[in-house]
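Side project, low priority. Logging it here so it doesn't get lost.
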Amino acid sequence: MKKIFLILMIGFISLSIFNGCEDRTELTAPEVPAFTSGTADFTRIVSIGNSLTAGFQSNALFESAQLYSFGSLLAKQAKSASYVQPLISDPGFGGRINLTGFSNTTPPRPIFSYSPAQGGTPLMLTHAAPYNNLGVPGAILFDIMDTTDFAAKSAARANPFFQLVLRNPALGKSIFAQAKNLSPTFMVVWIGNNDVLGYATSGGTRGTDFTGKLPSDPLVFDSLYNNLVTRIATELPNTKAVFGNIPNVTSVPYFKSVGPSVAAEIKKAQAAFPTLPGLVYAKSTAPFVGVATVESLAGFQTLLTLTSSTYAPYLGQPTGKYYVDKGMAIPAGVDTTKPFGFDPTNPFPNEFVLDPEEITIASNAVTSFNNTISALVSANPNFVLFDANAYMNQVSSTGLTVDGIGFNASFITGGVFSYDGVHLSSQGNALVTNRIIEVINAKFGSTIQKVNLQTVPGMKFGKKINYDNLGLPVFPVGALENLYL
């Protein structure tokens, strides 16, 4: 009898504990909404674009970065059946930049190494279909529909990625044709950045218009983008798509890292030379030299490219090192016995400076292109706009805190951009993916879960130092010269 009573008591206590735990709902983890696709279908996601789409980082395309391209992250979050990319083993193609350490100077200067231009091996060349990621580093809007032979284009543009990504005309003779041949149920389109960024990153010395000196012509851009949107709508009528617009060039660290440091150096020089006007730089238009004041450099009214950091330490010296490194003859009228960058006869090179006139040209192009993109995308109920311009402006102006991690547009320390100052880091791609997911969910009623930023690798900083007010970075000569956008 005692045994029966004991068994009953144990059962009663166990039931009470069970019921008590069941009622304590405050200890229950919140339920994650089940994935639903809404009115969209994410079975086959295809991405078209340039290096941003490809997952290009730190001046190279390599597998450990490609795995975190925004298309790949979106496909994973949206439960896509598969998402195949033109993977390249590390260290990749392009000449990858690696942070190797910091100088012992005050402030510390980041020091970089540079991998071989083709240090990796393509891993997916035998894939029998077009890749789901059709982002081609270096592509402009024109290239999406262009049917020029891939190998010939790679040779003509000194760009291996057209041949690497597109491979075989039998898969489709253009980027669009290959995308269409995959019968995508959902597309991510982010193209047109290079139609202005190529002009900007060259310091206004090269362009994509018919003269080769300016951003793409707005009327031509409008016609080409209209053709792209129309063909997706008519030839893939059941395909939903998200389109990214073009961030302003001033939102990336490529243009916002060097100026303040150079301004500080000029300010020191002005103590010894009170009449020094500022940084004297070459221009391609009359007058053929310009002057960037300390104020305009520090306040970003005049922008210096990240590549200029290689030669900024030689400011004020009687040197022609820039021309020696380039293998160029000293131009007529240049006197390398004069202080480099401080004298009109030995100016700082034009390709390193985006002056106020050139900033206006680039900004006007971005505005025009984005107006075109917005109007065409908003006119189709199957399409939605990812306002990359507004998002990157937010990152640049106020920064973001996501999953307990702080992000901003600072070079190295901001976490959003890779070591080339233009392309997104893995966590930067995750941020973009999450914003794309937000606009997709809002438009199509899907419930795609966002990427947890804590699960995505950040940029390596190296040894622990104070990262505030970093000095000029030290790049190997030639680094970033063939920056693929």
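Brief comment: Residues 1-27 have pLDDT under 50 and may be disordered.
Revisit when time allows.
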